[in-house]
Amino acid sequence: MRRRLTGISLSLIAALAVVSPAGAATFSYPDFAGTAGLTLSGNAAQEGNLLRLTPALGFKSGRAFRTEAIDPQQSFQTSFAISMHDSICCSVPTLKPADGMAFVLQSKAPNAGEGTGGSLGYGGIVPSVAVEFDIFVNAGDPATDHVGIVTEGNTTSHLQCANFSGPTAPCTAGLPFPLYGAPVYGWVDYDAGTQHLKVYVNQTATKPATPVLDSPVSMAPLGGAAYVGLTAATGAHNSVHDVLSWSFNPPSAATTTPPSGTPAPPAGKAATKKCKSKKGKAKAKGKASDSKKKGKGKKCGAKKGKGKKGAKQG
Known about the structure:
By secondary structure, this protein is mainly beta. It has one helix at residues 2-17; strands spanning 27-29, 38-42, 45-47, 50-54, 61-66, 76-85, 100-106, 128-134, 146-151, 160-163, 173-174, 184-191, 196-202, 213-216, 227-233, 240-249, 277-278, 286-287, 309-310.
């Protein structure tokens, strides 16, 4: 009798062990006065009410992933406010803010990620899906600032993209404003039924009626559990990369605007222009931006430079 009960117990334990903990998660960070529930890695750190993924120093990268996995096969909506600002020149004589940020889904671990420069901090994570907010032209990048959807970490191949000077090939849509200098609000909606990913961007906390990107994306490679987060990196050029707010919801609970209120920059730091945003997705592999490429860099309007594939450096 004891043996039978033991056998049943072991079977139940084994069955429970294979059940994925991932589900339709809901969380909200109106600011980052607290970072409970997040795994920070690389150069990411809490600074007052902000989450600073990188300082304005060369060859840095930072990541902030939600510690608890979600089910990427379910529909979701996410929003965030980001700010890329106060670039400091660099190892070359021309100021070019770099490199950018990304919203990423990946199934490795909450502390996964590597690479500086054009890798945007999530290089080497496969499988993954990412939405890039890229401010530096690395090898294979569209001209000027762009928002793009990439998969499998291939940062030089965009499923779809929109660039500031565009639409210019390979981008089929135009981005109405630069990504550097002022806060950017982002929203990412995923419909599991149609397997479509939509990306919205704005300079205010009002979600636009029309997405800037709308592309079919399969989450199948991610399996039943994935980690969602935001990443950033610098290369030979740099920028401060801040996250000001972030929320994640299943569609029924999602809001249409970012959390209210923009945190003030921490004392003693360069002023951060107000910022909020929402949703995105991503993948991994590094890019390398060419620090020798010619061109003017604006203090608050970033462009991009070329580089090597595999570890793009801004």
